[in-house]
Design brief:
five-stranded mixed sheet, Rossmann fold, alpha/beta, 8 helices, 25% strand
Length: 266
């Protein structure tokens, strides 16, 4: 059994509860195991990093947690709801209301302005008036220090700015969970520092963040760190398997202002 960080013993809300879950891809007559008998929990307010090499299964796991795919076997509870028992419509409602995605490739629509890109998830969220889209976009863009880019287009932004727009888009529905798939993979080191400082600040402000990365230095920035190899959680010197509750770590300081860093990067 591949077990990693059992549910903490203190009273905390469990957002993600995965039990003995596996994923198998089928190619013709071949059965290709990708994830094997995983036990994994995340409580509200954690910043968890899943580290692993290419092909370890970490992105597949994140896709399943984000309701873009499903396990072949096992149990998955998201916010206390059993995911395998939900319909496709219920999946989409749960995903739109409670999950914010941050992708490696930004996934911005080039023909839309920054405000339009950021407000796109609101179109699928009941109860939000179209007249409020721009107001809410401006609010989350202020959080990522891009208030002056509302009417810009993606091609007019640096890579780091595009990723911050993507983070603003993930925040606009006020999700319960932020999922970051290699969020700095296409960025230079200075832009990556800005993005990681932003994720750290969001965590300090109460956000629950689950990030997958191949970079051990980025994984070390998280509150809790796990290592995935061949579809199983394994113990390493930097990411031990432990049943003890996660402990708070000191916030990562903002080593430089965003503006100063970007000025040096330009």
């Amino acid at each position: 059994m591949a077990e990693a960080n059992k549910t903490p013993t203190h009273q905390a809300e469990t957002l993600i509860d995965i039990r003995q879950a596996s994923k198998v891809f089928t190619q013709g007559k071949l059965q290709l195991p990708v994830l094997q008998a995983l036990d994994f929990q995340v409580t509200r307010g954690e910043f968890v990093a899943i580290e692993g090499r290419s092909g370890s299964g970490k992105s597949t796991l994140l896709s399943i947690i984000g309701l873009l795919d499903s396990f072949s076997a096992g149990e998955y509870l998201l916010l206390g709801q059993s995911v395998p028992g939900l319909s496709a419509y219920q999946h989409s409602v749960l995903r739109n209301r409670h999950i914010g995605w941050i992708f490696q490739n930004f996934n911005l629509i080039s023909s839309m302005t920054v405000a339009e890109n950021v407000s796109l998830p609101l179109r699928y969220l009941a109860g939000v008036k179209a007249a409020d889209y721009r107001i809410r976009a401006a609010q989350v863009l202020a959080q990522v220090e891009l208030s002056d880019k509302l009417d810009a287009y993606p091609e007019q932004l640096s890579g780091g700015q595009q990723q911050r727009v993507a983070i603003a888009r993930a925040l606009i529905t006020n999700p319960s969970l932020l999922l970051a798939d290699e969020p700095t993979g296409n960025l230079d080191s200075q832009s990556a520092e800005i993005v990681m400082n932003l994720l750290s600040k969001l965590h300090q402000d109460g956000a629950t963040v689950l990030m997958v990365t191949h970079d051990p230095q980025l994984a070390a920035r998280a509150q809790r760190r796990l290592y995935l190899a061949d579809g199983q959680f394994v113990a390493t010197a930097s990411a031990p398997l432990t049943a003890t509750p996660p402990t708070a770590v000191a916030p990562v300081p903002m080593s430089m202002t965003t503006a100063a860093t970007e000025q040096r990067a330009s």
